[in-house]
Amino acid sequence: MYNTLIYKPIIDTPRFLFPHLSGVFMLTAFRSAFSVIVAAFTLLLALPAQADYIVDYTDIWFDANATIGVSGFGINFVQSGNSFDYIFATFFIYDPATGNPVWVTAGMDRDSSGAYFSGDIYQTKSDPTTTPFAPKNTNSQKLGTVKFTPATSTTGTMVYTANGTTTTLSLKRTPLTENILNGSYWGQATIRSAGCSSSIYNGTFFNTLVLAVAKQAGSTQATYTFTLNNDSYNCTMTGTLVQEGRFQKIDNAKYVCYSGSSKIVDGTANLYNIAPTTQGIEGEWTSSKGWGGCAEEAHFAAVINPS
Length: 307
Fold this sequence. Notes:
- With 307 residues, the protein is mainly beta.
- It folds into 2 domains: 11-52 and 178-304, Lipocalin (Beta Barrel), CATH 2.40.128; 59-173.
- The protein contains 1 helix and 20 strands.
- A hairpin with a 6-residue loop joins strand 14 and strand 15 (221-228).
- The longest helix has 12 residues, at 34-45.
- It is elongated, with a radius of gyration of 23 Å.
């Protein structure tokens, strides 16, 4: 999956189903019975330490300070590795001395602190591609170094030195075309709850989900619908959809949940890192006051329902 989710070992405790996605996020959620949650939480305490979720920075990036864009200028990231600790970057930039277009590459490794990626920049020259490729005529020259420090999943700072000239860029993901994610999905989610009205609801829960997405053509509004526990809970998240490179987000979405006719959540949520995958969709949300008065951090992934 493109926004790679590295799951921690957690308990299989159903909590949300995702039936529908749209310009507005409708969410149908359920909690398992009290005894199931208590048992799941007790077992959770005995589980080993787990790896954190990580972000895939694969995308086309541009200079965020250039409000009208810079034609012919950009940086491509392709991230790989079992822990996504390596980024291969290609730069299509301008030579500081001549203004001519320059193509350079870099391999960056994640620092042991996890805070940034760094490596060396190279420029490679060879025969024109119109002739048979001759490896002996290829020459790679190290130009300098590069360091990329993410600020968020969609922004960061890059500092690179090439031929003695240092350049600092504030980077943002480049939106190319809008991701149309309308459809019905089946999948799973992990939801971390903290600060709940009752401490028995604190913890990390594994959830099977049904998700539906819908967005009207020409509208910026989207609706995500999550259904859990055979429709015992129905939650919706509604707001303005924003495209950031491959990702979409909805800030301050209206977040409402019902259990039957009783409203059990009436607040806001932030949906982010929503992205299409080759099989479906994935994303995240946070809320300061979700089900049970909990602060929620959720990660979900689902495959398209072909029916």
